[in-house]
Amino acid sequence: MxxxxxxxxxxxxxxxxxxEPSAGLxxxxxxxxxxxxxxxxxxxxxxxGRSFRGRVRDGLIRQGQSALEIFVEWEEGPAGDQAGxxxxxxxxxxxxxxxxxxxxxxxxxxxxVEQLGDLCAALAVVTFEPGSHALITGAAxxxxxxxxWGLFHVxxxxxxxxxxxxxxxxxxxxxxxxxxxxxxLEAWEHEMAAGGEVVTxxxxxYLGALQSHVATLLEAWAPALGGxxxxxxxxxxxxxxxxxxxxxxxxxRDLLAGYTSVGPHRADWRVDFSGLPGREALSRGQAKITALxxxxxxxxxxxxxxxxxxxxxxxxxASELDRAHQARVLERLVGWGxxxxxxxxxxxxxxxxxxLTPTVFHVEHGLPERx
Length: 371
Ligand SMILES: Nc1ncnc2c1ncn2[C@@H]1O[C@H](COP(=O)(O)OP(=O)(O)OP(=O)(O)O)[C@@H](O)[C@H]1O
Fold this sequence. Notes:
Layout: E1 2-11, E2 14-19, E3 25-30, H1 36-48, E4 68-76, H2 80-86, E5 91-99, E6 104-108, E7 111-112, H3 116-122, E8 125-128, H4 134-137, H5 140-154, H6 158-177, H7 182-221, E9 228-233, H8 243-249, H9 251-257, E10 268-273, H10 284-306, E11 311-314, H11 317-320, H12 323-336, E12 340-344, H13 349-353, E13 359-364, E14 367-370
Parallel strand pairs: 3-12, 3-13, 8-11, 11-12
Antiparallel strand pairs: 1-2, 1-4, 4-5, 5-6, 6-7, 9-10, 13-14
Helix pairs in contact: 5-7, 5-10, 6-7, 7-8, 7-10
C-alpha cells in the first residue's frame, strides 16, 4: 500500500495541508509544535477511526472549527519491479472522512460508507510512536486492540464474531445491572459463548503466527533479551471450562459486581524472554524495541498474508531509539520495500549513517514544503 496524497483540513494547527509522498521513505521535519505528528495522526485517523493521541473530540479539531476533514489517496498492489515482472496493475483508491468529534461521514472510492470500520478496513497503517511501549508494559486493552486490528485485516470472519460477542456482552452487562432473570442471562451468555469462542481461537492462532516474525526482529535488534515466546491469556480458565460454563459459574459474582468478569474482553497476551526474569526487568528502551518488533512483525505478517505491506508511520524515531537501533530498523524497512513516514526535528542520525535519501517535507508556519 502506498499513499500518494494525504490532505488534512482543520486538523490541530493546520487549516488545509496536503502532501504527495513518495513510495519509499518520507521524512517530515520541522521545529517543535510545527505539526509533524499531526500529519501522522491524519493517516492513523483514517486507518483506525481515532488518533494514537486520543479521540477526535480530545482536541484534534482546530480551535474554533466544528469539524476536521482527512482525504487519502493510495495505490494497492505489489510495488515497483515486482509489479512490472508480474504485469500486475495497481489499484487506486481514495477515502475521505469528516469528523465533528461526535458525528462523522465517510466516503470510500466515491461512495458513502455506513460504518467507520469500512474506512478502517480499506487502509492499513501500522504506527510506532512515543506511547507505543504501552503495548508491552501498559494495560491489557492495548494488547487486545493490537491483536484485533491484525485479525480485522487478515481474517474475514473475525469482525462478525467480535461484533456478536461485543453486542451480547453489552446486553448481559445491562441485564446484570438491573438484576435480570436467569432465562434472559442464559440467552445472552449463549451468544457470548458462540462469538467469544471464535474470537479466542482466532486471536490465539494469530498470536502464534506472529511469534516467528516478532522473534526474528527482536533477535536481530536486542539479542541480549534471548528468545521470546508469546502467550495468549483468554480471559477465563479455558484449560478447565468452556466460555459458556465460565459465564454460568461467574453469574452470582457478576450480579453482585454489575458487570461481566470473565471472557475475551478480559483477555491479554504476554511476551516472555529467555534472557530475562520477566517483562518488568525490561529497560524502557528495551520495552520500546520490543513494541516496535511487535508492530513491524505484525506488518510483515500482514504482508505475507495480504501480499503487500501496510503503510508504516514512525513518530519521532530518533528520540525513541539510539542511533544504532535506528539504523537497524530503517535497514529492515528499506529491505521490505514498505512505504514509511518518519517525523523528527531533523533527520535521524541512524538514517544518515545508512546514507539513505528520503523524500523530505519540512513543516514551517503550518505548511509542509517538499525538499
Ligand atoms: N485543536 C488545536 N487547534 C489549534 N492548534 C492546535 C490544536 N491542537 C494542537 N495544536 C497545535 O498544533 C501543533 C501540533 O503539533 P504536533 O504535535 O503535530 O507537532 P510536532 O511537530 O510533532 O511537535 P513536537 O516536535 O513538539 O513533537 C502544536 O503547535 C499545537 O500547539
